[in-house]
Design a protein that fits this description.
By secondary structure, the protein is an alpha+beta fold. It has two domains: about 5-205 and about 330-430, Zn peptidases (Aminopeptidase); about 210-320, Alpha-Beta Plaits (2-Layer Sandwich), CATH 3.30.70.360. Helix content is about 35%, strand content about 25%. It has an eight-stranded mixed beta sheet with strand order 1-2-6-3-7-18-8-17, sandwiched between helices. A four-stranded antiparallel beta sheet has the order 12-14-10-15, with helices on one face. Helix 4 (about 125-145) packs across helix 11, helix 7 (about 230-250) runs antiparallel to helix 8 and helix 9 (about 335-345) packs across helix 11. The longest helix is centred in the C-terminal third of the chain and has 21 residues, at about 290-310. The two termini are about 20 Å apart.
Length: about 425
């Protein structure tokens, strides 16, 4: 983190500035309506046409100027308020291919074709809440300019769920069209924190996400004469088992990693040995070195297993790292410490929780992976009714990506807006 920014943030901890006020009942009514509209009208990654149109209309109501499209259906703009740091404030817009089962009166009934198969569409990861809090935060900052100063680079991106959106925004010149931010902030909903609390994870917070395909080749033949063939089904089965030893025997127990084979495709009927089998994997890691080591180990394991099965060099497995990489999310430790102190003042220490890293992915990480790095912080917004949380085992709560996930928005919306505006107020208010 630049020394100037460290000094600025450190000085703000002792300021007696103006705190963010609670949003008004009318604001909450409007924003709840915004949330319900977005929840009922979800769109898949890179299809967020109506969603982006709805957001720009809401930005117009606030009186903000924006650019669209960027990076697919993305939106970006600058809320300026004198001298001070530039803060990137990001939301995501896309939903998941999932049939909703919450039973809410505003539940999604959207059905689409995906890869030739009918599927529902649902905001099961909280992006509808992210957008609502993002709009509420911008509305508050636009009408309470006396509480902060600087610039808010507000960004609404496509395709977080597929890991494409942030990269496309940056590839389309986000930091050329607008000032390079001094720091970046965002929310991600939490399905196991009460809707009165926020969570912060300093350092590595979410994992590298890689999707790999492995083409296991062999020599096909009759199922009654396996000695005349080289069976890729057996080789693929050995590879699936052997891959698990990469984590259990090659990775440090202090460096979390995941290698999951989620799909196997091969063969047609039981009495034909096929020529090939395809495996689909997800690999999770923290840090660039660990990621490279895991991918190399997967390639070595596949080739070694194939050679042991007698597969010739010309038919060794083909390991493809698909173009869906999401880099690990790193929450700047100094910014995390500062944010925790500021929010504890606002909410109380018991409502600001330090949480453990997770092996899920988040492409918000890309906004800070610049040269030099931009200090970034993604906080977790509690979304579970405290009474429900107190009476329900955590394992029984609907998680993110569940068709039953439905946030407690009446508490989470004002919590997210109040916490984010207060944090921005304190970070940007400089008495020097």
């Amino acid at each position: 983190m630049p020394l100037r920014l460290i000094a600025l943030i450190g000085s703000c901890l002792v300021l007696q500035g103006v705190s963010a006020q609670s949003i008004t009942p009318d604001d909450l009514t409007h924003l709840t309506g915004v949330y319900r509209h977005l929840h009922a009208h979800p769109e898949l990654s890179m299809q967020e046409v109506a969603t982006s149109s709805y957001l720009t209309a809401e930005l117009d109501k606030i009186g903000l100027t924006w650019r669209h499209p960027i990076g697919g259906h993305g939106i970006a703009g600058l809320l300026e308020n004198g001298d001070g740091p530039t803060i990137l404030l990001r939301t995501d817009m896309d939903a998941l291919p999932l049939v909703e089962k919450t039973g809410a009166p505003y539940a999604s009934n959207v059905m689409v074709e995906k890869d030739g198969t009918p599927t529902g569409v649902m905001h099961a990861c909280g992006h509808d809440l992210h957008m609502t809090v993002w709009l509420g935060t911008l509305g508050y900052l636009a009408t309470h300019r006396h509480t902060w100063k600087g610039r808010i680079l507000f960004v609404a991106q496509s395709a977080e769920e597929t890991g494409q959106g942030a990269k496309r925004m940056l590839d389309d010149g986000l930091y050329d069209l607008f000032p390079r931010p001094d720091l970046a902030l965002a929310w991600h909903t939490s399905a196991d924190l009460p809707s009165t609390a926020v969570g912060i994870c300093p350092g590595w917070a979410m994992a590298n996400v890689d999707m790999l395909s492995i083409l296991v080749r062999g020599v096909g033949g009759h199922g009654a004469s396996p000695h005349l063939a080289i069976d890729p089904v057996v080789t693929a089965a050995k590879i699936v088992v052997d891959l698990q030893t990469i984590v259990s025997r090659e990775s440090s127990p202090f460096d979390p990693a995941v290698v999951t084979v989620g799909a196997i495709h091969g063969g047609t009927v039981g009495n034909i040995i096929p020529d090939e089998v395809r495996l689909e994997l997800t690999v999770r890691s923290f840090g660039d070195e660990q990621r490279a080591s895991l991918i190399q180990a997967i390639e070595r394991t596949c080739w070694g297993t194939a050679i042991a099965a007698g597969i010739p060099d010309t038919l060794l497995p083909v390991v493809t790292v698909r173009d869906m990489f999401t880099p690990a999310l790193y929450n700047d430790p100094e910014l995390s410490r500062t944010a925790r102190g500021i929010l504890e003042e606002l909410l109380g220490k018991e409502q600001v929780v330090e949480i453990a890293p997770q092996t899920i992915g988040e492409d918000f990480s890309r906004y800070g992976r610049q040269d030099p790095a931009i200090p970034s912080l993604m906080m977790r917004l509690g979304t579970v009714d405290p009474a429900v949380l107190a009476s329900t085992p955590t394992t029984a709560l609907p998680g993110l990506h569940s068709p039953y996930y439905l946030p407690d928005v009446e508490r989470a919306i004002p919590l997210g807006i109040r916490a984010m505006t207060h944090l921005i107020n304190r970070i940007t208010t400089d008495d020097h």
